[in-house]
Amino acid sequence: MIKLVRLDERLIHGQVAIKWSRHTGVDRIVVANDEAAGNKIIQQSLMMAAPATAKVTIRSVADSITLLKDPRAAGHKILVIISNPKDLIKILEEVKEIPLINVGNYGRIAPKQGDLARRTYGSNLYAYDEEVEDFKKVLSFGIDTVYQTTPEDNPEKLSKVLGL
After folding, report:
1. Which residue among 1, 13, 18, 150 is the active-site one?
2. Which end of the chain is more exposed for a tag (fewer CB within 10 A), N or C?
3. What domains can you pick out in the chain, each with its CATH number?
4. What sequence ranges are listed for the domain PTS EIIB type-4 (predicted)?
């Protein structure tokens, strides 16, 4: 059912629409994001960026969990997109049979903590110390978790990228 869970703060954009949706062969994309679920303008922009080859659903994190746990979802090939590590943890706590977690783009546009700069872990991965703690919790679920911006990039174990 779930082919890939991707953490990407930009949600749907060119890399997801063109590269990841084709690479995974999905027929459904579930965007699990509270802000997008409640904002028609964000929804419209995400739908414009979405690939024509997959049906897109934009739901709150809680509603996404309900959808992904529904037995009717089992007949689909699903790419789940989450924008931050805290929401990823919520998904992992509730949804089973996730084969792979891909961390692609995070920390450039995520909410800032005053003037404090995030530490650089990759060309597209920046995190505060407490976000690294969230990533450690993600790793504790025992699911293969890689840092990989595009399918053409070599996947790196997230633990290695974070220096854990």
Report:
1. 13
2. C
3. 2-159 (3.40.35.10)
4. 1-164
Distance of CA 108 to the CA centre of its chain: 15
Bigger pLDDT: 100 vs 16: 100
Q: How far is the C-alpha of 161 from the C-alpha of 122, rounded, in Å?
A: 7
CB proximity list for 103: less than 8 A, separation 6 or greater: 6, 7, 125, 135, 145, 146, 147, 148, 158
pLDDT tens-digit series, residues 104-116: 999 998 888 888 9
Residue 161: both structure tokens together: 């990228």
> Which of 123, 140, 135, 143 is CA-nearest to residue 163?
135
Say whether 13 is catalytic.
Answer: yes
Burial class (CB in 10 A: 0-12, 13-18, 19+), 95: buried
Strands (E), 78-155: 78-82, 101-105, 119-122, 125-127, 145-147
